[in-house]
Write a structure and sequence with these properties.
about 425 residues; 10 helices
Length: about 425
């Protein structure tokens, strides 16, 4: 393909990516991936050490204790997850063998893990008090003993259990700690993570820059006859070559009218819409960017119109956002623009979601969420218009709320 065959619509990609959502592992799969298991968000990434200094984790642990105290909770238990990683600096991965962080409302935290894992976890985690259990032993009994040591003289109380903990683990912990009440730790962990520190925003900026660069490089390789799988694989390679693992969703033509697409879309032809939604992970933090372009000599009038309406909707939400703005008002504002243009029923999902260690996390920009935006919140703004049987357009950028308004962390696409 010669360069003139390929049109990236007027700045749709800027030269300067978070593991995608778990279901991305099933998208754009080839024939050999028919029974592929979706990627787990708990898999261990390539980095084995905390990407932030120890003092950052010390502050996080202290804030967690304050949140526990404010809610009348005695202890937090977290199994490997992004919440576990947020507090310890390391995610050892989840398996049938119990690994658990125990953080008391007062005092130093401890980790219970298999004895053969003690050294690995100690080397990469900021937590230094580790208690190992042997293969023939009951790890939940060791949890009970550790709780008694951390909360001496108390045989009962309230434990905040990390939300994604396996149900079977919850049942066994409950049996081992019959005098304790278990509650969902989400109010604690979500409050801890929803406001990003400057260090966290810095990691997100790096992920975003890599993502945008990888998207531009991938668009430059588009060629007639390519499959969505081909382009998705090229995208992953481009991210990996830039030092960050990542992947994404690639959709051609009518496939782009399905917000999450699916494998087996059409092969690429000239004068066709191409949508790429992707992200990569840097230091445990993820990006999430979507760009939609016209592959060919000149975009159709209808594509140009739809693209500009989506762009205007995104701009309206970005201009509205201030500290104190309810999340639902952001969604309403963008939706008003799309509805006024006659495409209201074609905007079928929320405006955006929080972004950090998970590709999707609170707060969500959606009708009914009256939570007010605060400085330090990071979120996507991603309006879309999807016309079944024709094409879809989504423009997604990553943003942070500042004291004065929305700062767009990714370089925006230009209007057509």
């Amino acid at each position: 393909m010669q360069r003139r065959e390929f049109l990236v619509t007027a700045g749709a990609v800027a030269a300067p990516l978070a593991t995608r959502k778990a279901e991305v592992g099933t998208r754009n799969g080839g024939p050999d991936d028919l029974f592929r298991v979706p990627r787990s968000p708990f898999r261990v990434g390539p980095s084995q050490d905390p990407s932030l200094p120890p003092e950052v984790f010390a502050r996080r642990l202290e804030r967690a204790r304050s949140e526990l105290k404010a809610r009348g909770l005695d202890l937090l238990i977290a199994t490997p997850s992004t919440n576990y990683e947020y507090l310890t600096g390391y995610n050892p991965g989840r398996s049938e063998r119990l690994i658990a962080l125990l953080l008391p409302v007062a005092g130093a935290p401890a980790i219970v893990c298999p004895s053969f894992e003690v050294e690995r976890i100690k080397r990469h985690s900021v937590i230094t008090d580790l208690h190992g259990w042997e293969e023939q032993e009951d790890p939940h009994a060791l949890v009970r003993e550790t709780v008694r040591r951390l909360r001496p003289g108390s045989g009962r109380g309230a434990i905040a259990l990390e939300s994604s903990t396996a149900y079977q683990t919850f049942r066994r912990l409950g049996a081992a700690l019959p005098g304790w009440k278990f509650v969902d730790a989400a109010p604690v962990t979500e409050r801890l993570r929803v406001i990003k520190s400057p260090e966290e925003v810095g990691l997100l900026r790096r992920a975003i820059a890599i993502t945008l660069d990888a998207i531009a490089a991938t668009f430059a390789q588009l060629a007639v006859g390519a499959t969505e799988v081909d382009v998705a694989q090229a995208l992953s390679r481009e991210m990996q070559q830039r030092g960050a693992p990542g992947d994404g969703l690639v959709q051609f033509g009518p496939s782009s009218a399905l917000p999450h697409g699916g494998p087996g879309g059409p092969k690429l032809e000239r004068e066709m819409v191409v949508l790429i939604d992707c992200g990569c992970r840097v230091g445990g933090y993820t990006s999430d960017i979507t760009r939609t372009i016209w592959f060919g000599d000149s975009p159709s009038d209808e594509f140009r119109k739809v693209f500009n309406v989506v762009h205007d909707a995104q701009t309206a939400a970005m201009d509205l956002g201030r500290p104190g703005t309810p999340c639902e008002e952001m969604d309403r504002t963008a939706r008003t623009v799309i509805t006024a243009a006659g495409y209201g029923p074609c905007f079928t999902h929320r405006l955006g979601h929080g972004l950090g260690m998970d590709g999707h996390e609170p707060e969500y920009l959606v009708e009914g969420n009256k939570t007010r935006l605060e400085p330090g919140m990071v979120f996507t703004i991603e309006p879309g218009i999807y016309q079944l049987g024709k094409f879809g357009v989504r423009i997604e950028d990553d943003c942070v709320m500042t004291e004065s308004g929305v700062e767009v962390l990714s370089q925006r696409a230009a209007k057509l």
